Amino acid sequence: TLEKETFSFQTEVGQLLEIVAGSLYSNREVFLRELVSNASDACDKLRYAALTDASLTPSQSFEISLDINSKAKTLSISDNGIGMNHADLLETLGTIAKSGTSAFIEAIKADEKDQVGLIGQFGVGFYSAFMVAAQVDVLTRKAGETEAWLWQSDGKGAFTIAPAERDTNGTTVTLHLKKDAKEFADQARIRHIIKTYSEHVSFPIKLGDDTLNAAEALWTRPAKEITKTQYTEFYRHASHAYDAPWHVIHNKVEGTLNHTSLLFVPSVQPFDLFEPERKSHVKLYVNRVYITDTTTDLMPAYLRFLRGVVDSQDLSLNVSREMLQTDPQLAKIKTSISKKVLSELKKKATKAPDEYATFWGNFGAVLKEGLVEDAALRDRILDVCRFASSGADGLTSLSEYVSRMKTGQEAIFYIAGEDAAKLAKSPHLEGFKAKGVEVLLLSDHVDEFWLQHITEHDGKPLKSITRGAADLDQVETDEQKEKEDKADEADLSALIAAIKVELGEEVKDVRPSKRLTDSPVCLIADDGDMDVNLERLLKRHGQ
Ligand code: ADP
Ligand code: MG
Fold first, then answer.
1. What is the annotated signal peptide range for this record (predicted)?
2. Long-range contacts made by residues 23-27, C-beta under 8 angstroms, separation at least 24?
3. Cys bridge to 408: 120, 420, 474, 517, which one at CB 3.0-4.6 A?
4. Is residue 473 predicted with pLDDT exceeding 70?
5. What distance in angstroms lies between residue 468's CA and the mean position of ligand 1's atoms?
């Protein structure tokens, strides 16, 4: 039989623990929320596993129980969920850092002020135990297996795993509280924390014989009975967030495909929003049984900023996570939810444009990916897109732009580049400004890509002003006309010839232009050629 083994934390995990244990003193009661949420996840996982493996069907109903030893100053959190075996312990508690750990460590070093917020977003999860504990013991037994294990650590570089005894499946996490964290061995304090953070965990959380929480699935209750505070608490619990949601979308669809969704738009941008491996954060339930929170088949990638849950009775409970991909019912739910979210965004954009501008600043670049990804909903997405413009304070929609177009103006003009401030000062804009013609200033990476798909709006073509034929001759202003009449064009031919000789092969052509008023020259692409900025982008990506 096995003896006690000692392992080192992976470097990143070690660094993470140092940050967690050393520098955080405000708000540290959230460790309890994290451990309760792991216990709840473990029950969800076993309930799901039992769907396909009858031998795993639990003997008692799921619950989470807390135990306080006020003499020994310990607090423990037990569940009768899935449990962990030796391999699980090694993989999840210490030797393999979660993806994004290094990015998180960088972020937290850069922003000392908002460490707790960052920790929430990243989900240090289990490791938050070390905020309050000098030593953590994890006694666990995996459902369907007979061996139990004891994982122990003081969070300082190493942990041990040893064979142990446990009567039933599940996990008990015992915290040996630090000297300055004895308050967490106080019943009243613990009750209060559970009420604050874990009221809507859907399994009972017990202290002795008392159940401390409502233990119901909040989303199943009618929206009009739920208070704003309850929504916020649920959001924080379900998504490990610290902010208040920017918007809540709670929607019940009845009919051919019943489903309920309770979705939250965060008010701050998660630091990993643009990490390639960032997954969906919306949890899928079938008739209150948790199925998964990693499927890409429930929420489109361009709505990946959403948090919350989707629950449907009309999906098969026996559906495996792998089969979700080909489930036509799920595809329908996905479309229905996407439409609902877009229509809610549209309402916000119309009724509260200032609030919408905040949302747009956080998630606009993500939403615009939908213009490329989701051809079926492209028009609806475009409808809620907002853009900076040379002619308007704040943001504008394409339709608003069109309504302000000058007589004789035939195209929606835009300039795309990396830096919004630079774009606003671009010499390309001068002629347009002089004529009072608005130009959209597009500075997100994704802009170049949707512009390949959307070439017109409301019958008006979208035109880059860094291309040859962005022609302003049709647009009349009186002042401009006078100036033009006086311009001495004959003198330019000698100058142009001289410039051509000087630049040779570097340029395709040199032309006089009316688009400039203050700057002497600018670079443009020919109509059939690639836009200057797109060319630069593709070069950077090695193409
Ligand atoms: P997350 O919950 O976001 O996955 P955590 O750091 O909270 O991250 O937990 C890491 C992993 O440890 C979990 O994904 C799970 O596999 C395992 N784990 C933690 N607590 C428990 C528990 N009570 N029962 C079973 N597994 C657990
Ligand atoms: Mg967790």
1. none
2. 23/115, 24/115, 24/116, 24/119, 24/131, 26/116, 27/116, 27/242
3. 474
4. no
5. 58
